[in-house]
Amino acid sequence: MIQMKNVMMKYDNGVIAMKDLNLTVEPGEFVYVIGPSGAGKSTFIKLLYHELTPTEGSIKINNFDFSTMKPKEVPFMRRQIGIVFQDFKLLPRLTVYENVAYAMQVIETPEKDIRPRVLEVLKMVGLEQKLRRFPSELSGGEQQRVSIARAIVNKPQVVIADEPTGNLDPETAEGIMDILDRVNKTGTTVIMATHNQQMVDEHTHRVLEIAGGRVIRDEKEGSYGREA
Ligand code: ADP
Ligand code: ADP
C-alpha cells in the first residue's frame, strides 16, 4: 500500500510543486496521474520513488516510511518498485538480455535463478527473439518493452511509469499499454503519469488529476477530461 500524508514539496528556488497531498493507493490498483505540463506530475513520481524528499509530510510504501527509513534500507525499499521512463534509460552497451539480467545481478540474485526469469519476462513482453540485440538496434516500442521487462523482473509490488508512451506512435503505445495492463492483472500496483488522453479514456482506471501542485480530481473509473 502507498500512503502520502500532507505532502508538500518546495524546490530550492522557492517553487511549491506539490501541496496538501493526501493519497492512499491499495495494492493492485492502477492509477493514472494526469495534468498539464508543469502541474507537478514528475514531482509526484519522484517523491514516490524517493528521488525527492518532501519538504513536509510523510510517504509510506508498504512497511517503508520514507521519513524514518535508514539509508541502508533504501535499496530494500527500491526493490519493491520498478520504474519505467519515457526515454527508456537502457544501458546502450548491454544487449536486451543483459539489460534485464543486470537488474537481477545488482540485487545479488543467485546466478542460476537469473536466466529463467529473464527469459520469462522477455517472453511476456514479446521480445524472446531479440535477446542479443542492442538497444540501438530496436524500435522505440521494443526499447520500452525491454525497460518494462527490466522494471518487473524482480517482481516489484509497484511499477511507476513516467510518460511511458510519450515517445511512441499510437499503435505502439497501445501495445505498451496492453503490457502494463497485464502487469497490473498479475496484482502489481501501477502508477502511470501520462498525457495520453486516448489511453486514459480507453483503458479505464483510477484517475488522479493534478493542477498547480494539487490533486484536483480523484476518480475511481475516470476519464481524461471531466464528465460534463
Ligand atoms: P509536470 O511533470 O507535471 O510537467 P513538474 O513536476 O515537472 O510538472 O513541475 C512542477 C513545477 O515545479 C513546475 O513549476 C516546475 O517548473 C517546477 N520544478 C520542477 N522541477 C524543479 C526543480 N528541480 N527545481 C525547481 N523547480 C522545479
Ligand atoms: P540461442 O539464441 O542460441 O538460444 P542462448 O539461449 O544461449 O542462445 O542465449 C540467448 C541470449 O542470451 C544470447 O544473447 C546470450 O548471450 C544471452 N545470455 C544467456 N545467458 C546469459 C548470461 N548469463 N548473461 C548475459 N547474457 C546471457
From TrEMBL:
SMART domains: AAA. It comes from Lacticaseibacillus baoqingensis. It comes from the Bacteria. Part of the ABC transporter FtsEX involved in cellular division. InterPro entries: AAA+_ATPase, ABC_transporter-like_ATP-bd, ABC_transporter-like_CS, ABC_transpr_LolD-like, Cell_div_FtsE, P-loop_NTPase. The lineage of its organism: Bacteria, Bacillati, Bacillota, Bacilli, Lactobacillales. It is a peripheral membrane protein. Belongs to the ABC transporter superfamily. One of its GO terms (biological process) is cell division. GO terms for molecular function: ATP binding. Homodimer. Forms a membrane-associated complex with FtsX. This is Cell division ATP-binding protein FtsE. It is found in: Cell membrane. PANTHER family: CELL DIVISION ATP-BINDING PROTEIN FTSE (PTHR24220:SF470), IMPORT ATP-BINDING PROTEIN (PTHR24220). Keywords: ATP-binding, Cell cycle, Cell division, Cell membrane, Membrane, Nucleotide-binding. Residues 2-228 form the ABC transporter domain. The gene is ftsE.
